[in-house]
Amino acid sequence: MPYVDVLPIGLSEHLKAREVMTKYSLRPSDAIHVATVGNHGLQAIATEDEDFDKVGIKRLWIRKPSA
Questions:
Q1: Separation CA 41–CA 38 (nearest Å)
Q2: Count of domains in the chain?
């Protein structure tokens, strides 16, 4: 997949996700994403989910190229 990296999710992401769920009242799936972004030093996430605004992660929108 061009422009996509699949990152591993391990114990450190699980532990961080538990903290994030408690602190920001996020769903487990969102917390795993937040933990993965943070643990891998990423700057942003491609999503339309406004829940990520709670934790200060920059959200990117992917637009379809015009035809």
A1: 5
A2: 1
